[in-house]
Every structure is written in C-alpha cells, then in structure tokens.
Prior knowledge:
By secondary structure, the protein is an alpha/beta fold. The protein has three domains: 1-81, 2-Layer Sandwich (VC0802-like); 85-164, THUMP superfamily (THUMP fold), CATH 3.30.2300; 179-401, Rossmann fold. Helix content is 39%, strand content 20%. The protein contains 14 helices and 15 strands. The chain has helices spanning 20-34, 59-66, 85-99, 121-135, 189-199, 217-231, 245-254, 257-279, 298-305, 321-330, 334-337, 344-348, 359-366, 372-380; strands at 5-9, 42-45, 49-53, 72-81, 105-112, 140-141, 148-154, 159-162, 166-170, 179-183, 203-210, 237-243, 283-285, 312-313, 383-387. Strands 1, 2, 3, 4, 5, 6, 7, 8 and 9 form a nine-stranded mixed sheet that branches. The site of magnesium ion (MG) has 3 residues, from loops.
Amino acid sequence: xxxxxxxxxxxxxxxxxxxxxxxxxxxxxxxxxxxxxxxxxxxxxxxxxxxxxxxxxxxxxxxxxxxxxxxxxxxxxxxxxxxxxxxxxxxxxxxxxxxxxxxxxxxxxxxxxxxxxxxxxxxxxxxxxxxxxxxxxxxxxxxxxxxxxxxxxxxxxxxxxxxxxxxxxxxxxxxxxxxxxxxxxxxxxxxxxxxxxxxxxxxxxxxxxxxxxxxxxxxxxxxxxxxxxxxxxxxxxxxxxxxxxxxxxxxxxxxxxxxxxxxxxxxxxxxxxxxxxxxxxxxxxxxxxxxxxxxxxxxxxxxxxxxxxxxxxxxxxxxxxxxxxxxxxxxxxxxxxxxxxxxxxxxxxxxxxxxxxxxxxxxxxxxxxxxxxxxxxxxxxxxxxxxxxxxxxxxxxxxxxx
Length: 402
Ligand code: ATP
Ligand code: MG
C-alpha cells in the first residue's frame, strides 16, 4: 500500500491543558531527530495529532523509528484522499485489499468532523462497506471484533483513511519535564534508571566518576557506549566525567574504613549536585535499588542523602532485579553493562562496608576533613563530552536546536 503519511496520536499529552503547546513542540523535535536520516519527510504538528508526510521515504523504517519516541501513544500509516466518492471508494478498497487475508472480517469506523460532507456516518458505512463487500469475494463484516478496521476520517481539508493502529512507546516527550543529572556507572541499573526517567519527559545529562589508573580507559569507554545508547532517544546527551582518584585516596586516608563507602557516596552526591547547579538541572537520578547492596539500605540512603536537599529520583527503588534486567535487554544496554570493568567504588571500598551507617558519625568523621577544595578541583577538572548515538550522525541543521 502506498501510504503517504503517518498519523501520530499524542495520548497523555492531550490531557495536559495549557502545557500542550510545549509538549507538542518537544515531541516535534524528538520526531525530527529520530527521523533525521529521512531527509524528504515533512512534519505537520497540530493541536491533537501530528502527521509525518512520507514523501517517498520508507514507511516501515519510519514507523520503526517512531515507535521508540516517548510521547507517542499510537501510530497509523494513512492515506489522504480528496472528497470525491469514486476516488474514496478506490482508496478504501485498495487499503483493505492490501491487508486482507482469506476468511477475514472488516468494519468501517467513520468519523465525520466536516459536517458539510455529503454522506453522514451511516451513509459512509453503507457506501464504502458495500463497495468492499462487492469487490473482495469472501470478506465479511464484523462490527464487534473485526480483523481489519478501516477508519475513514472526514476533516474539512480532506479525507484520511487508515487501518492499522500501532502502539507507541507512551510516556511524555523528552525535555517536557525539565532536566536532571543521571549518575551513570558502568552497571546494569543506572542506564535503566536514566531511560525510565526520560520516558517521563525528563532531559538528562550523565555524570560518571572515574578513578584512573585504578579504573581503565576501557571502563570509561563502556560508560561512553552506554551514554550513546541513551543518546539515541534525544539525538545527543552530555556526559560529565569527574576525576575521582584524589578524593578516593583522601577518603582512604582520612575516614575510618567502615565508613569510607558512605563518605564516598556523599562525595559523589556533593559533586553531582554542584554540576547540576552549574547545568541548571532540577534533580539527580540514581540506579539505587532498595536492599541490593550496602549503600542501598534505607539507613545508607538516609546518611548519604544528608548532603543535599535536591530531589533524588530513584526509579528502580522498588523493582525486582529480573524486571530491571528485562528493560536493560529491551533498550540494548544489558550487553554493554555486563562487559567486565573496574568500578571506582569497588576498588577503594572495603569488602564489608557498614550497612547501617549513622548520619551523625559520618558527619563527625568528615568534620576533620577539609574536603571543599578537593570538590572544587574535581568539578573544575570535569571533562564534558557531547555524546551522539552510534548509528546517526546528526545533520548540522539540528545542532542549534537545543
Ligand atoms: P549500577 O548497576 O547502576 O552500577 P549498582 O546496583 O551496581 O548500580 P552501586 O554500585 O551501589 O549499585 O551504585 C548505586 C548508584 O550509584 C548507581 O546506580 C549509580 O547511579 C551511582 N553510581 C555508582 N557508581 C558510580 C560511578 N562510578 N559514577 C557515577 N555514578 C555511580
Ligand atoms: Mg555499580
């Protein structure tokens, strides 16, 4: 079938009242980025739906890209037809024929927004239903549970016909809910946490703590590869790489061993918060999962969280590991995450850190430690990379969009 456009339904955005324009704008940007490799397409954004005009590009490939975009509820490849009954009949017939398999049923779902159109809804049903029944031998009508549901929409400017309703990724368009910093390790959890937050419309920048020579270039590359995967969602993503060796060495010297993990996490949070402030983010995201390891008990979170009152988003907090792994596989980060690497924390941190640290104790230990200059130095020497997805080199016209 020669579809000439793809109809995009917004779903959740439609309920957002005054913010709608912003949501539609962000979605339009996401669509442009996702379809950057189809130069001939055109996007038409309207209040309650969007059209991608195909202009000869490959419809299946476009749909594949659109299915990953947050903020799209569903998609339908469609054709535009002039308000001419003969043309409409032929278009309806060829659309149904292109999908029909022997023994299948169909129905017509008319929607008549243009009240001046010559046929009312039952007229549309009879005219086109009748034509299809006459011309496809064996096809039957089933209004309750049809195999093919031909939607005919009569709008003031033209008629649109479509049959398929393809489920989109749901969620909200990225960037419509502000910006947050993702603490990105090389593990399985944090990329999934980033993905789920992006799905709620949050734009993310990643922060990674790197301790050369204890952690190798290979583990840095691993984090860059994870960032590339997440960057596919919005075309690019900033990754801040924080040199953490000096701080870890000082912690080892100054803090009792059983509290070094708690202090290390507090430093990571302080530094991330400082980068967040500079980058004008509103929250910090981690891959914490309740009870998984010593730093992720409620007591630990309480003691670590003490260093900031910036909201900390922990989308995986209550999830089961198997469910996290399933998402990691779906979004293609799992295979990268399981590559062997040295984590900056496991190298310095004792094998049995305190699982129930006391906030007052860690505050006391840190009170002898003049750490502020170390934090400033780490922030100043942080390397900021702009990560782009592997597969798509963005054309320069998108450069200044963000
Ligand atoms: P992950 O699978 O994301 O590494 P994890 O289960 O291994 O998580 P931890 O190593 O305790 O758990 O880390 C908890 C969270 O702290 C991570 O999800 C991540 O958000 C953050 N984090 C840990 N190490 C780093 C790092 N080197 N750089 C940036 N963030 C980190
Ligand atoms: Mg980890």
